[in-house]
Structure formats: structure tokens, C-alpha cells
Amino acid sequence: MEYFITVAKLQHMTNASKALNLTQPTLSHAISKLEDELGLPLFDRDGRNIRLNRYGVQFAKRVEEALRSIESGIQEIREWSDPDTGVVSISYLNILGVDLIPNLVMEYKQEHPKVRFELFQGSLGDVDEHFENGSSDLMITSKESAIMKHEWLTILKVPLYIVVSAQHAFARQSSPLSLTKLSGEPFVGLKNNCALRATISTCFDNTGFHLATTYDAEDLVTVAGFIKAGLGVSILPQTPGLELEGLVWIPIAEEGWEWEIGLKWRKDRYLPAAATEFIEFIRQR
Q1: pLDDT tens, residue by residue, 260-269
Q2: pLDDT digits (tens, 9 = 90+) for 143-165
Q3: Handedness of CA 188, 191, 194, 197 (dihedral sign)
Q4: In Å, how far are 96, 122, 156 from 89, measured between CA atoms?
Q5: Fold of the CATH domain 156-260
């Protein structure tokens, strides 16, 4: 295409071959091959002088548009991957969009004002699919969702609490409460599509104590709503978005009850410079 446009502009095979740093036979062969592929001539020839015919004029318009589009695409890709002007693509859990993600974006843009963020939020299944199919380079999620082919970098660890309604018998509990005290209480659990479920299950496995789930909710906000309504107790992180009026947060007496949230990426996949720079930002932070 570039050979064709050069010949079309110069209207002279020898001059075009010099401009392209090609031998004239090589250029002539390339133009002839193009015409053979199209099935019609693009030039009227008079010795070494050539002139675009009406087919060539029409085709040149389309080729110039295509080459401009390709050049724009190259520029976009370069800007996308540039650590100072590129795009950081992240998928993350819904509950993290209340506080953590906005703060991270704000802090990062203070240092890199020209960087753009491409964000996707949803349930664990949604964001995991978005991440695994390559639609995002990074994912901010619960540690238990990371697997062997993922790299993991901890962002924060959030304490977990026993949560009851203000009308519950434990509402006046001021000291840490053992999970064994919840035996027989209706427990509001989480469905598999919620990232925190795996963390809670792991913690329970380590204590050897289990609670019978009365309700399984889709997300943490729904769990908080059920507790507020007096439909049971649960275990939640005290994060923005969950601190509803009418809830009481009681520290857990057993050790190790915390929710680890971090950044993960695929070690078997190319990461643009913008994403790599964001990882380093999290590491230093």
C-alpha cells in the first residue's frame, strides 16, 4: 500500500523507487502484483512515466484513508502503553468502588495526571471473567481468588467483625466475642459469587468451628441489610458502604480473622508500561 501511494504521488517509477530505497524492478513487480490481486490496472503507462487511471484514483483515496487509520492506531497503542500518558485497565469488586478504588485513582493521578483509567466493576464472577479474557490488565480482589498463574501484591488487610443488629442480645458486647457464642444463631452467609465467602470459609476451616447458614446473600450490602432487619448475624469487614445505621460491630476473639485485598495480574501475559508503573506505585504505597 505504501509503495502504491508513493508511485501514485510521484507519477514516476524511477523517482518512486529512489524515494522508497528500492530497485525499480522490485517496485514494478510489487505494483504489478497489486494490480493482479485487484484484477484491473491502476495506472496508465508511458515508458517510465505512469499516471493514475480512474480506478487508481478511486483506490488511492481508500488506501490513504487506511494508512491514516493504521498510523492513528499505532499512535494510540504507543500512548496506551506509555507510563505517563497510557491507560491503566483494572477490574475490581463492587464493594471496593465505594472507597478504595476512588482513593487509589486519585492518589495515582496526582503523580501521573495524564494517565487514564479504564475501570470495570462487578461481582467476583464478572470481574474474574473480565480479567481472565484479557479485557483488563489488573484486578483488585480478595486474595483467595488468586491462583498459581497470578502474581499477587497485598494492598490492605481489613479486620473482620461479628455483626449484629442493635436489638440483638450481643449488641451491648464491648469486648471481643468468640465465634462459639454464635452457635444456634441464624447466620447470614454469602453465595459463591462473592469474594469474601472464600476468606470466611478459610478462617472457619482453621478454627474447626462452623455455623449453619440460614440465608445466602449475593453481596455484602445485602448481608448488612438482612442483619439490620434482625434476620440473623454475620461476619463482615467494617468498610464504607456497609456501615448502616442499626448495626453493631463486635471484634472477633479468635485470631486471624481479616480480609486481605490486593492487586493481581497474569505473569504469563504482556503488561503495558502504564500497568507496570501502577503495580510499582502499589508496591511503594
Answers
A1: 999 999 988 8
A2: 876 666 789 999 999 999 999 99
A3: positive
A4: 15, 14, 20
A5: D-Maltodextrin-Binding Protein; domain 2 (3.40.190)
